[in-house]
Amino acid sequence: MKTYKASLKKYYKHGMAKHLESAKQCYYCGCEATDTDFCPPLEHAELVLEFDEQADFITVPACYECYALLHNERVLSLALRVKKLKTKLSAKYAKALKVYYMWHESELDEMSPEFAHSISAGMRLGQEAAQRVEFQPFLLESDNPEIDRPSVNQTFVVANREFTSFDTALTHCIESYGLNKSKFYDLLVKDCEGDFDKALSQYEHRYSKPQTLDVAKAKIQSFSKRYKQNSDFVARATEQLMKRDAKLDIDEALAKLYQDYIAR
Ligand SMILES: [Zn+2]
Q: Phi, psi (5° rounding) for residue 158?
């Protein structure tokens, strides 16, 4: 079986860096290359060939980590392997990336030495991970000139405005919309795959409603106190009134409650 697998290698072109400066780099992340990634993985080559599936059939230099992250992935094109790697790398270093984007060097001075030390270690790891995630695959030279260089999306759009780095787009969102940085970051990275507009709309959906509810709660409390009413009664009654007449907001519902049930 092993020899058979090895014999499949002849179907692959050898993708090599076209320019000397990239000669020893991992195609996926730019680190030092120590391994070779097969696209598609050798394990799957036989069936890919048998069923004549679309695949790139090329090898590229890879670092140990990218090789380990990818070699079991049945992803058949180089462009999709790049995408897959970036996703897996981002997930693996999610914590460090968050530290890197959340904190700035200037803030370290205000922390206790132990905390500053751990944050700064996290920031370094996160910075390295961010560079690897943003690394653009280099041009390849192989016996197939048709291979295009897959590009990694490097513009970030926020409400029709384009940003060239993730960091500036993130800062823009936090400052312009007054968001909680940590909450927004989690939403953006974990639920919205880096789509800023999607994250903004979900943020509004997720975090604005409770605020409205808090405001309503506070109004009910102060109304109850002012008119010496049981606050559970006031909450239920306003809820009923608003259900009966969808046009009523909390202030109008409380006014109606007062007028029709309390003041008479
Ligand atoms: Zn790598």
A: -125, 110
Indicate whether 67 and 177 sit together in one domain: no
Distance 183 CA to ligand 1 centre (A): 30
Q: Which two tokens stand for residue 122?
A: 């996290």
**Alpha-carbon distance 103 to 170, whole Å?**
13
26 CA distance to ligand 1 centroid (A)?
5
What residue has token string 């904190």? 103
Name the domain count of the chain.
3
| Spacing, Cα 66 to ligand 1 middle (Å) | 4
Query: Which domain does 233 fall in, by range?
Result: 209-262
Chain position carrying tokens 């990275």:
189
Taking all residues of the chain, what is their mean pLDDT, rounded to a whole number?
87
Do residues 218 and 139 share a domain? Answer: no
153 Cα to the center of ligand 1, angstroms: 18
C-alpha 121 to ligand 1 mean position (Å): 21
Output DSSP code: residue 106: G
Task: With a cut of 50, say whether residue 88 has pLDDT above it.
Answer: yes
Residue 149 belongs to some domain of the structure: no
Amino acid (one-letter) located at 75? V
Q: What is the mean pLDDT of residues 32-55?
A: 90
- Are 231 and 220 within 8 A, CB to CB? yes
